[in-house]
Known about the structure:
Blueprint: H1 7-12, H2 14-20, H3 25-32, H4 52-65, H5 67-87, H6 92-100, E1 105-106, E2 114-120, E3 123-133, E4 141-147, E5 153-159, E6 165-168, E7 182-192, E8 197-198, H7 203-207, H8 223-249, H9 265-297, H10 304-338, H11 343-355, H12 361-372
Parallel strand pairs: 1-4
Antiparallel strand pairs: 2-3, 3-7, 4-5, 5-8, 6-7
Helix pairs in contact: 4-5, 4-8, 5-8, 8-9, 8-10, 8-11, 9-10, 10-11, 10-12
Amino acid sequence: MYIDELLDDIAAQAAEADRTKSVSSDIIGAIKANDVMRLSASPELGGLNAGVAAIGRELEMLAPACSSTAWCLWNHLCTFHLFCGMLGPSHSELLSGITVRQEWVCFPAGASTAVRAETESGQFTLRGSAAFGSGARYAEWAGVSFVEEDGKPEFTMVDLRVPGVRIDPTWHAMSLRASATDHVHYEGVVVPAGRREPFHLRYREVFRDPRYAMIHHRYREDWVALSDLWLGAMAVGVSQAALDECCAGIQERVAILGTKMVERPTIHVNLGQAGALIAAARDTVFAALSETDERIANEVIPVESDYLRQVSASMQALQLCDDAMRLILRVLGGNGLREGGTFERRYRDFQAMPLHINAHRDRVTEQFGRHLLGLQTQNPF
Length: 381
């Protein structure tokens, strides 16, 4: 394990990060100095080529300590996976440099993103803004999807330290307050002409073509699917920690008329059900992650049913954890919340997980249903 040596320090600053909406700079520096940054990078890039299940276990441990910090690292690991597939072998030098220096990447490309490029004298200039760049203020690099005058979608990476980049702290949500899911503005940012590739809207199909050159076979796996499964692992970690804290904190509590809480049968029922739900969620996520690792090890090219297996496993695990969190809330009751603890923050942070567009229940079930009916699934999500 890599992140375990930092967990105490990460947990110690979690409440302050939530209050100030920014992860401690010391914590960000410590993570960047840790080999956890290189887990999703292949050996060709100087990475550790970690199994996707092993990455899931790291994130499962990190999320209870500070979900905002976990969200940023999760975003770095899964978007770097995408960037390796998008840029391919011809950009190995760039990607290797990022890996070896253990620099942070992000991918602001959410709703309202609009970035255009103008080409002149062998270089191109980016103008516009990109939304929802989780971890942007902590990152050195951003992936950018943009269009030129002809409207053709393309992709590049921008060094966030160059002139013309402005990060606007727009994330004011109730959840993951320190995840820095901000807007990035490109105000005449000059990018080397050779640092661009087509942005394949149906990239899953392109990446699955054995003729399409890849840095490593692992990058044929869809980044959205991996992000969903790792998100499920984080949800398991958060809900398990909430359950453990609830069980420990309830031991000496007394209900109305002096009855001990630990002796009330409904407490047993609700906590038992919560524990079973979390165990089922963990089994669901890590079974799908293990299947993915086996496919990567044997260099089996994934198909659409594999992708849907991954995203549906994550969706279901998130739903199980959501149900468990509500049961824990029922057990804690008003007095339990009044007494403090970390549940309120964990509960808020958890809310962003099943709502994320990649793993959203409505989107995943619709796509799975289309596939079951023999209809084409829709891309990029």
